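Researcher: Go.
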Amino acid sequence: MKNKRIKGTVECENCRFFALCAPISICDKDYEPVVDALHRYKKVARGEKVCRQSRSIRSIYTVCKGVFKATVTDPHGDERVVGFYLPGSSIGLESLDSANSSVDVEALGPALVCEMSVARLNELRKQFPMLQINLSRLLMQELRHYQDVVIALLGSRSAEEGLAAFLVYVSTRMRDAGFSADHFDLPITYADIANFLGLTRETITRLMTKMKKQNVVTYRGRKLGIIDRKALTALATPATEDANAEIATV
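Model: Structure:
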C-alpha cells in the first residue's frame, strides 16, 4: 500500500520516517497495518502547536510541507528558539521514550504533516521487531544531525559566520528533502533567527541587507534565494579554518 502524495510536499522516499514505512524484511501483506497506522495527513494552521513543553506526546510527525519552530520557556517566562523543523524533518521523535515533550513546536505558516500515533506505534513495535530497530536508527540519525548543527553554529566566530552557517544548513535540509537548495519558502522571521542564533534582530537585518547588496542571497517576503553558494559557504567558514586550509596547501 502506498500513500498518495500531495502536490508540493515531501516525497515519501525523502521522509525521515520512510524506514518505518518501507517493507524492510517484512512481506507487504504483514506490513500493511504499519503503513495504515503511519500515513495520516493532517493540516496545521499558522500558529498552531503540535507539541507543548512538558506535556505528553500523543503523536509524532513528519513535516510534509511548511516550517515549524521549537521553543522552550524558562521559569521567568522568557522564550528561546532552540530549533526549526523543515520539510522532511521529524517532530517529537527525540521525546518518544520520555513521554513528555521538551519543547513547544509551532507552525510558522500553513503546514501539512504526516501524523503517527504513539500508542499505535508502541503496539506495532511489539508486533514487528524491525520497527524497534529502525526507530533506534532514526533516533541516532537525529542525534547526529543535532550534533552537526550545534558544531556548525558553535564553530562560528562572528555573527556573519553564524547567519551564513544557518542559511547553508537550511539549504542543505531543503535539498535532502527533495526540494531546490537555492530557491525555497522560508517563513522564519528575522526575530526568530536572531533568537535562535543569540543575536539581535537589528544584527540579522543588517547582515541580510549586506548579503543582498553583495549578491549572495535574496530574501523577499517568505522567499529565500541563494545566488552565490560559494560565497555563502565561504562566509560560513571560520577564519581559522580558512587559514589552516591555506597552510595545508603550501
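Model: The first helix runs from residue 18 to 21.
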